[in-house]
Specification:
Length: 419
């Protein structure tokens, strides 16, 4: 049965509800149609009778499947502002209630006396009218949860919250001498370990949502929810780019900005890469073999928590790969809100990963929880500006974020090159 795959509106005959709601079952049905069409394409290629119509059909279903997955991800990436019982308890303390009420008055009318009084009470010297006021803890937690849900690398990376401007992590470049010895054998004196430190400075990230006076005066509008929803996407986009390709200049250092070396020659301070053997493409014969090589370039201790990271175009390419038994290597999420998998490992879609091209590093695989560290300085600040863009009120919102590779052996990348 033919399907109007090109339409963005869901079609009833495609097994998708007419009200536009996309479910996990819809994705699974569309994936079955994709497999059938791709099997037909592969069969035609094998019989040397490839049909451009079949090829186009596969690409259209592939694109539609990507859209369905995006819709499902969007539904699950919007946590509500409601706090858990533990957070509720913290948010209902007298100080928290007083802070929230003072912050609400500042946001709606610009009245800052309450916030200034709280700062004097807390003997705070870190926030002032020139630098903005710290948001209540529940709003900061909400922004953090939302970013974790929609910022792809943050969702899988290790995270630390600091109170200063730099986080330093020590590591051993050379450990103490060790060895086996008999019960009465002589023991040589062991050497002292050599230590070094990785530094992760927290850089300022900002967003400037705008509101009308009418919105601020409307008591039915939840200002907390509005601010969190306005800044989340701006923060997530900037973070997503920095964590992948950031150069470390007033921003986090992305894992693709580090030098890479052939994995056989790997050394600390560089990421190991596996070459596809073909410039700008997967090999024409058994293309999935290089993915196997990439997975097993990672040591077993990291591999058990491994995750693939790539953009949607690359994922659409690997979605067509099969193993020797004819089973598809890519599989849709096993349940609603889950992740797609490749060779049983989860796949994270990061649009800042490069497209497949000559010498591109388009696929990463690793234990990002151990390999990449995101550093957040505690506190999100807001400065109300009713003057710059009258009649709109701007809210200059800032947070400090850093990031970088903390374990260079935990992440490997696939290089689309001959060597």
């Amino acid at each position: 049965m033919d399907i109007d795959i090109l339409s963005h509106a869901p079609e009833t005959k495609a097994g998708i509800a007419g009200n536009g709601t996309v479910t996990h079952d819809d994705v699974m049905r569309l994936f079955e149609e994709f497999k059938a069409a791709n099997d037909q394409r592969l069969d035609e290629i094998a019989r040397r009778s490839a049909d451009v119509v079949t090829e186009d059909k596969v690409e259209r279903i592939n694109a539609a499947l990507t859209r369905r997955l995006d819709n499902l991800a969007l539904k699950s990436a919007r946590p509500s502002l409601g706090a858990s019982s533990a957070r509720d308890a913290k948010a209902t303390t007298p100080d928290a209630i007083e802070h929230k009420a003072a912050f609400d008055a500042y946001m709606r009318s610009g009245e800052s006396i309450g916030l200034r009084a709280l700062e004097v009470k807390a003997m705070s010297v870190g926030s002032n009218p020139d630098g903005g006021y710290v948001v209540p803890v529940e709003i900061e937690q909400t922004i953090g949860r939302r970013l974790t849900a929609i910022s792809p690398i943050r969702a899988i990376a290790g995270q630390r919250t600091i109170s200063g401007s730099v986080y330093k992590k020590p590591f051993m470049t050379a450990g103490p001498a060790t060895g086996w010895v008999g019960e009465t054998g002589a023991r040589t004196q062991t050497a002292s370990p050599t230590l070094d430190a990785l530094s992760f400075p927290a850089m300022e990230l900002y967003a400037m949502p705008a509101a009308t006076s009418t919105l601020l005066e409307d008591s039915a509008v939840n200002i907390d929810e509005w601010l969190a929803s306005e800044v989340e996407q701006a923060f997530a986009v900037q973070e997503g780019t920095a964590f992948v390709t950031g150069d470390g200049d007033n921003k986090p250092k992305g894992f693709l900005d580090y030098d890479t070396v052939a994995n056989a020659s790997w050394a600390w301070g560089k990421l190991g890469h596996v070459a596809t053997g073909t410039a700008g493409a997967f090999p024409s014969s058994d293309p999935s073999d290089v993915l196997v090589d990439l997975v097993y370039a990672l040591k077993a201790g990291y591999r058990q928590n491994g995750t693939f990271v790539m953009n949607r175009k690359t994922q659409a390419t690997v979605r067509k790969f099969k193993d020797s038994g004819g089973a598809y290597l890519w599989q849709p999420p096993a349940q609603a809100g889950g992740r797609a998998s490749l060779m049983t490992f989860p796949v994270v879609e990061a649009e800042d990963m490069p497209d497949i091209g000559a010498d591109s590093l388009s696929i990463a695989f690793g234990d990002f929880g151990r390999g990449y560290l995101v550093v957040d300085r505690a506190g999100v600040r807001v400065l109300r500006d009713p003057f710059t863009a009258k009649p709109y009120v701007l809210f200059y919102t800032t947070k400090r974020v850093g990031g970088g590779v903390q374990d260079f052996d935990a992440i490997k990348v696939l290089k689309f090159a001959e060597a």
